[in-house]
Amino acid sequence: MNISSSHHSTLLYDATDLQRWRESLSSHDHRPLIGFVPTMGDLHEGHLSLVREAKRHAQYVVVSLFVNPTQFNNASDFEAYHRDESRDAQVAVNAGADAIFLPSPGVIYPSGAQTWVNVGALGDHLCGATRPGHFRGVCTVVNALFNLVRCHIAVFGEKDYQQLSIIRQMTRDLHLPVKIIGVPTARESGGLAMSSRNTRLTPAGRREAMSIYKSLTNAQRLWREGEREHSSLVEEVKRELSPLLKIDYLTLCDPHSLQPLADEQQTHTALLAIACFVEEVRLIDNLMLGSS
Predict the structure, then answer these.
(1) Please, which of 36, 49, 210, 243 could form a disulfide with 190 given CB 3.0 to 4.6 Å?
(2) Which residue out of 47, 134, 152, 230 is catalytically annotated?
(3) What share of the chain in percent tops pLDDT 70?
């Protein structure tokens, strides 16, 4: 794989490569030495914003490109996932990555591997309710990547708020020496949350999908105007959504526990989270109501 850039970068494939690369580094300022952005490739501007944020917080940045088989509920989805490592490595380097980690499944899951990182109550709702085992796969691979890369900070997007919350919990629970940094959701010009899945939408489907952000921001406006009846806010979102969207979940929940909020619960903040299907493409988004 060839990468052309004035920015020096290194391709790493296994633990030995990572160790040699780490040993070659020299600290040149007060920032933590290694920042990390784990991805499954198919990079877009949202991913690149994470790389740039990592570069702000660390002297060197590693981006991993690994399509994790254990977080897919459907084998055909895993096989169909778009892969272009050369292109992804190039755009990551252009965004400031110093090293690209391209492990094989055998590096992440050694022969005979049988240890999993299981998720607690944070994984019971939202995406966890309809994607059994998904977050177990996420936590296991992230834990493995943290141990291999030996990063000091790691950056994740807030679009998958549940994933970010679970990884923060795992990092605390397992005493991992990694600071987790969340980055606000990157959006297209019409407000649609950036996602690798967006490329699978037709132009008409993309227009319909734009109603997701419009409906969430409408609920956010109502909250600021004093509406606190949770069921009313959810119904307002449904009214604003395109009728062509099929809702997987639409929930007002506690931003810390991710437990659904009942109408009678008084709270200063709430997370409004949605997953829906547009042309059979599953999209997620969320907005915080109130200050977190």
Answers:
(1) 210
(2) 47
(3) 97
